[in-house]
Every structure is written in C-alpha cells, then in structure tokens.
Amino acid sequence: MSETKYLETHEWYIVDGDNVTVGISDYAQGELGDIVFVTLPEVGQEFNKGDAIVEVEATKTVAEAYAPMNCVITEVNLTLETEPELINNDPVGEGWMVKAEIKEMDDSGMSYQQYESFIS
Amino acid sequence: MSESKTTSLYDFHLSKNAKIIDFAGWSMPFSYDGTLKEHHYVRESAGYFDVSHMGRLRLNYSQIEDINYLICSDLKNLSNTKALYSIFTSEEGTAIDDVIFWKFEDDLILICNASNTSKIKTHLDIHSITYEDLTTSTDLIAVQGKNAIDIVSNIMSIPDKFSTLKEGNYVYARTGYTGEDGLEVMLDTKDTLSFISELEAKGIKPCGLGSRDTLRLEASLPLYGFELTDEISPIEAGLKWTVTNKDDYLGKNVIDQQIESKEHKHLKRFKLHAKQIARTGTICVSDGVEGIVTSGNISPILGYPIGFVLFKSNPADDLVEFDIRGNLIEGNLIYKRFLS
User: Fold this and answer.
1) Judgement on whether residues B43 and B187 belong to the same structural domain of the protein
2) What 3-state class would DSSP assign to B230?
3) How many domains does chain B contain in total?
4) At what angle do helices B209-218 and B35-44 cross, to 10 degrees?
5) What is the pLDDT of residue B340?
6) For residues A14 and A10, what is the distance between their CA atoms, to the nearest angstrom?
7) What confidence tier does A1 reach under pLDDT thresholds 50, 70, 90?
8) Are B298 and A37 within 8 A, CB to CB?
9) Quick check: B234 pLDDT over 70?
10) Beta partners for B254?
C-alpha cells in the first residue's frame, strides 16, 4: 500500500495496486461537526476525478466528498449507514467511505505534511 | 471590515478548545465537545451558554407607554418581576426583532438578537426612547436543562417560570431558548468567570451556538433572520399568541387584517421521511402551494430531520415534497410541537 494522500477538497485516499480507498480528512470532519447521515454510491457506479461520490450531512452543514481519480466503486462502508459518527471518531480508519477500482491512476494528492501546511 | 467582537469569555472559550465561529459580527463558541453531545447535556442534565453577544438595554420604567407602542404584546399590564417574549413590529406589521423583556419595579431590561442590536437602538432613538446599553459591561449566561433549576438552586434563589429576580451580583429570569427549564443570568463581566466555575463545579457543561440552534429548533422556537424577518409578521410566523397588545401599536392595522383574513404567508413545522436534511432555502410544494425552508436540521432526540417552512398561503394538505439538491423527498407538516 502506498502512503495516504490528501486532496485540497479534504478527501484522503490510499492506493493499493489497482484499488483506491477514499474518505474525508480529520480536518474536514472537525469542520463539519457531528455527521448524522451519509449518502453512499452504489457498487458498480463509475466516477470521474472530481465527481461527487458521497454526500455527508452534518448538524452544521452538508458537504460532498469527491473522487480523487477516475474509478468504479467496488465496495461501500455500509456501517456508516447506521454509525455515521465513525467518520468523526476515526476518519482515516473505520470511517472510510468507499473502495474503488482505479480506471485512470492519478496520484497527484498531497502528502500529510503538505496537507497539514495547506490547512494551517 | 470591522474586527469581530468578542465577549469577556473569549479567552476562556479558547482555553476550553471551543470551535469559534463568526455570528452577527461576534466571535462565538460553536461547540466544545460537539453539537450532539451538548444537545444531550441539556436534554438529559444541564448546560450553560455564553450568549453575551445578545444586546442588553436598560430602559427607564417611565417610558413604558412609548415602548408598548412599538411591540405587539401587552407589556404595560404585565405584572412587575415578570419576563415577556415579544416582537418589535414595523409599520407594515413585520418583525423588526423578537426580544425578551425583564420587568422590574423601576426598570426594564430588553434583550435583543445580536444581529439586531444596532437596529433596535436606532428604532428606540427614532421614537425618543432612552436606554442604557449594558451589552459590553455585562455578560449573559443561559443555564438550561432538565436538571438546571435543581442544580442552580444551590447557587441562587429560583424565581417562578417567566419571572425575574435581582439577587446579589445577578439580574436574571427563568427563561430560555432550548425548550428546557433554566435561567438566563446577566452579571457584571468581572463576576462571570467565578459564576461559571461554580456552574462547572456542579457538573454543568459549556455548550455552543451549534447546540443552541438544534435545541431551539427541536423546541419549535423561531430564530430571527430565519423564521422571523423584516418581511414576516408575527401572525405569518405562527406567533399569534404574542399579539396581546390592546392599545394602538406600530403595524396593528396590518396584523389585525391578517388575523381577520387569514390571507398571508404561513410558517409551518415539518418532518421528513428520509435522513436528508432540508436546509434553509430548500424549495418545497404542498397541495400546489410553494414554500421555502427557513430552518432545518436533524432532531437529535427524534432521530429524523425537522424544520420550519414558510408557505405563500395556507396549504390544504399536510403532505409536502421537498427538492433536496435535485431529489424529491417527502415530508409531513406537524401541527403539534416537535417534542411533546
């Protein structure tokens, strides 16, 4: 597995061979506040880089998580349907949102250090 | 741009790791432990809120006739030591602000929304009503919750509901904005920290404006700028119960006409049959009547999304279809309060 990378739109992703796992960053969950509902995509749905893949409802606002690269969804984190607070509690672990097969590799995300200076 | 104002507790909020937001030109705590947790502190036990950004004006009692002319409620005949929720109305019958009056023997304290303090002061100036602005020399702490009164009774005397009291350093009333019992306490800024440490010592937790909003919405309480604006009258906002002024007052003709004809906008409560939240600005239709959501959020206690919607006229049906980012979501109008 490669390192966790971050996007300017506050998603994280990890590339593992032909697959990518996507979620939102700790900073993003902190800004959103309590997450109460997520709308996950269907397995098999195809997304281009920058498309909205997940809708995140928080008490403060609603936000979208965007695809880091062109991909097809292979798995969604169904636990989030009953425990959306996992995104608040463990955003880069158990709060992952989708796994997808990479259609066109784009590993241009920021390292954690770069992302940290981006948000500060 | 003028710099954001802070209350005397700003450094204290930072020391509590509060998430700070700008609200009506004030840097205020949005949350400390998280909005949902703070919501439950209040519903299950007690929490305290720094609401010192709200305007506080002391008015001499001798001006009561003039003040009474500017609001839709009967402040004049309210007995002393009572608190009153009322609305400053415009000539068009719309809301200039919704406020709380604390009535005492010799003076009145007027508490207005932070976003409207300067508007209210100008309005009073125009009508030659004098006041002393206490907003920066005092703080306002709301102690709210199921157990709030029990706990606070160890610190101060407890007035009857909607009643006021002056005791020691405290000027206060048994009022609030959460749907729970509690006190709103005005005190000199130099006394606030010691008051708060007494509250904390008794297990009362700090709560931010985030939970204040989910609590007031769940308690079916309007927020100025959303359910009430300078384009919405008390009648349209479903606040006919506040219209108790028997004398002439600004906007009376329009308000009387609205009560008579029922031809006006109608604010309703709704719940959704989905998990999506219909947020402010969401368009909806019920029985061909178009509406717009004024406030919407999840109800942490009920577990589903709720809110207020303003219809152009009174819809005959209670089924509503909301357009949430292109998806049509069904909901129902609710005629009782959200929480029983």
Assistant:
1) yes
2) coil
3) 2
4) 60
5) 79
6) 14
7) low
8) yes
9) yes
10) none
Nearest residue of chain B to residue A84 (CA atoms):
B275
Q: What is the phi/psi pair of residue A12, to 5°?
A: -115, 155
Position A115 in a domain: no
- Which one of B28, B276, B329 makes the best mutation probe of the A interface by having the most chain A beta carbons within 10 Å? B276
Going by C-alpha positions, the residue among B144, B168, B145 that lies closest to residue B156 is B168
Show residues of chain A in contact with B279, CB under 8 Å: 61-62
When CB atoms are compared, the residue of B34, B275, B276 closest to A34 is B34
* Cβ atoms within 10 Å, residue A12: 25
State the complex-level ipTM.
0.84
Residues 15-54 of A with CB under 8 A from B: 30, 33-34, 36-37, 39
Q: How sure is the predictor about B69, in pLDDT bands with cuts at 50, 70 and 90?
A: very high
- Domain coverage including residue B213: 10-52+135-218
Q: Which residue has the tokens 């606040």?
A: B239
Q: How many residues does chain A have?
A: 120
Contact A59 B35 (CB under 8 A): yes
Looking at residue B196, which CATH number applies to its domain?
Answer: 3.30.1360.120
**Residue B305 burial (CB count, 10 A):** 26
Residue A29: give its domain's CATH number. Answer: 2.40.50.100
| Structure tokens that stand for B19 in this block | 């998430």
Residue whose tokens read 């709560």: B207
Which of B36, B37, B280 to probe the A interface (max A CBs under 10 A)? B36
CB-based contacts of B1, cutoff 8 Å, min separation 6: none
Question: What percentage of chain A has pLDDT greater than the value 90?
Answer: 98
Task: Provide, as residue numbers in chain B, all residues whose Cβ is less than 8 Å from the Cβ of A62.
Answer: 277, 279
Report the amino acid identity of residue B222: P
Tokens of B206: 């700090």
